[in-house]
């Protein structure tokens, strides 16, 4: 498939997807969504890939959904097409995804970063949900995922004022896992992805699934869900290998089985 709005490459077991609409600060349009869905599905199905890094440009991870594409929408059109529902496929990617964020991550850009599992930001990153300035509210999860990530006080502040939050505040608030110098962003994100991809893939996928359940379940349900997944891992070769390697004082060689 020829890609117009993305670039992709693989490095060992890590896939790197770069948003590539430089003239529009990587604004998220339908074409980009289609290509991102296909690419995520392709890497999701590829047994040789253990983790994905999603990034943008130095100036913008993504400056939001494409306002020029949205502007002519009417209510019936938006409702009948369930506009933005397509992003659920990206959020539901089962392999670990790291967002490497530099520059603007606004509106849908911030929401896309929050669909990923770990956000690593450069010290130039700016996060925000400025939809209120356009006469709308966030529509790709901003009011929900941001509130879960940073709490009601900060989420209300960002969504109601539309102000941008610098990387340091984003890390302090719990949105961002790590902040690094801009020059180190990709190396740091790829190194973290390589680390994850070196572990057992089914185990990494179960970690992701179980942590994500914390947002959806009561504590009692979540603890039971986690424990059942834990029990199931004793049926895998990788549990035998991981624990065997520890006991034998050697490095584990996981087979993803
Ligand atoms: C998914 C939802 C429902 O939650 C909704 C959204 O995501 S709504 C969009 C939220 N995002 C925004 O409101 C940010 C819009 N962009 C900006 O405010 C500024 O571009 C900026 C502050 C990020 C950067 O400003 P500046 O450096 O001055 O660059 P510009 O000249 O403004 O932009 C360059 C170029 O990119 C186009 N652009 C930027 N953002 C978008 C966008 N979200 N959609 C479409 N196009 C965008 C901008 O129009 C410029 O292009 P030209 O007009 O020069 O062709």
Automatic annotation (TrEMBL):
Its EC number is 4.2.1.17. Keywords: Fatty acid metabolism, Lipid metabolism, Lyase. It catalyses: a 4-saturated-(3S)-3-hydroxyacyl-CoA = a (3E)-enoyl-CoA + H2O; a (3S)-3-hydroxyacyl-CoA = a (2E)-enoyl-CoA + H2O. It is an enzyme of class 4 (lyase). InterPro entries: ClpP/crotonase-like_dom_sf (IPR029045), Enoyl-CoA_hyd/isom_CS (IPR018376), Enoyl-CoA_hydra/iso (IPR001753), Enoyl-CoA_hydra_C (IPR014748). GO terms for molecular function: 3-hydroxyacyl-CoA dehydratase activity. This is enoyl-CoA hydratase. The lineage of its organism: Bacteria, Pseudomonadati, Pseudomonadota, Alphaproteobacteria, Hyphomicrobiales.
């Amino acid at each position: 498939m020829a890609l117009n709005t993305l670039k992709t490459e693989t490095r060992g077991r890590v896939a790197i997807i770069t948003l590539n609409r430089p003239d529009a600060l990587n604004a998220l349009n339908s074409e980009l969504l289609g290509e991102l869905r296909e690419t995520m599905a392709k890497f999701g199905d590829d047994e040789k890939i253990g983790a994905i890094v999603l990034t943008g440009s130095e100036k913008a991870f993504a400056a939001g959904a494409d306002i020029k594409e949205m502007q002519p929408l009417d209510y019936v059109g938006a409702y009948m097409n369930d506009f933005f529902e397509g992003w659920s496929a990206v959020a539901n990617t089962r392999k670990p995804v790291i967002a490497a964020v530099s520059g603007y991550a606004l509106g849908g850009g911030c929401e896309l970063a929050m669909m990923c599992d770990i956000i690593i930001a450069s010290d130039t990153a700016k996060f925000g949900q400025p939809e209120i300035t356009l006469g709308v509210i966030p529509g790709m999860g901003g009011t929900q995922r941001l509130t879960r990530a940073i709490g009601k006080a900060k989420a209300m502040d960002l969504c109601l004022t539309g102000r941008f939050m610098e990387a340091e505040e984003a890390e302090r608030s719990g949105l961002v896992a790590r902040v690094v110098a801009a020059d180190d962003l990709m190396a740091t994100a790829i190194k973290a992805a390589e680390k994850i991809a070196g572990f057992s893939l089914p185990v990494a996928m179960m970690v992701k699934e179980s942590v994500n359940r914390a947002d959806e379940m009561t504590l009692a349900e979540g603890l039971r869900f986690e424990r059942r997944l834990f029990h199931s891992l004793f049926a895998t070769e990788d549990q035998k290998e991981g624990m065997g390697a520890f006991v034998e004082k050697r490095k584990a060689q996981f087979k993803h089985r």
